[in-house]
Amino acid sequence: MGKFSKIPENTFDELQVEAGVLLKNFDPTAPELVDDDIICATTGGITPSCVPTYSDWGEDIDNCPNGMKELMRVSGWECTLGFTALNTTPESIRLSLGAADIAEGKITPRQELNDTDFSDIWWVGDRSDGGLVAIRLINALSTGGLSLTTTKNGKGRLAVTLRGHYSIKDQETVPMEFYVSKGTEA
């Protein structure tokens, strides 16, 4: 083996394993799984994404090369959580629609957004050392709408894409946070 063909000794302790779970509430300082907080069963994994958008303040300056580091600015973040839900509960359908109301098993989309349509959603996954990795999507709202796929002799699948949103009350907070806790099992 060559001298540059190695991996860190702690690699296998730090692996994120399995698909994880989507939760309504979670406290990373006192991690506990409460069954009532589980949003839905999923299939095909869960895809969190947090991508910055950059502005180049030098792009219109004569003789200034594009991408000069001193003139680059972060103009925003696109934070999303994508998954496929198997549960077709009124709440999972409302979550996929975004702006909707539930009344006696009937889910009705509406034209306007309410502040209550936005909620924090947590993804929490296990680490191979017994610890966890957690992601909080802040002010999550569906941007993909409802897309239900059915198959003969199969399970219905509800595709959901949630996007985190900034708040006018806290304009500096990027709508996604990340947590890693080491475990004790090695």
Using brief descriptors, characterize the structure shown.
186 residues, mainly beta, two-stranded antiparallel ribbon, 1 helix, globular
Short description:
The strands form two sheets. Strands 1, 2, 3, 6, 7, 8, 9 and 10 form an eight-stranded antiparallel β-sheet that branches. Strands 4-5 form a two-stranded antiparallel ribbon. The mean pLDDT is 94.
Q: Classify the secondary structure makeup into a structural class.
A: mainly beta
- The oligomeric state of the chains shown is single chain
- Approximate helicity band: under 10%
| Count of discrete alpha- or pi-helical segments spanning 4 or more residues | 1
How much of the residues is beta strand, in percent? 35-45%
Low-confidence stretches: none
Overview of this protein structure:
The chain contains one helix and ten strands. The model has no long low-confidence stretch (mean pLDDT 94). The chain is mostly beta strands. The protein is globular, with a radius of gyration of 20 Å. Strands 1, 2, 3, 6, 7, 8, 9 and 10 form an eight-stranded antiparallel sheet that branches. The chain has one domain.
Please write out the topology.
Layout: E1 16-23, E2 42-56, E3 72-85, H1 90-97, E4 100-103, E5 106-109, E6 119-127, E7 132-142, E8 147-149, E9 157-163, E10 176-181
Antiparallel strand pairs: 1-6, 2-3, 3-9, 4-5, 6-7, 7-9, 7-10, 8-9
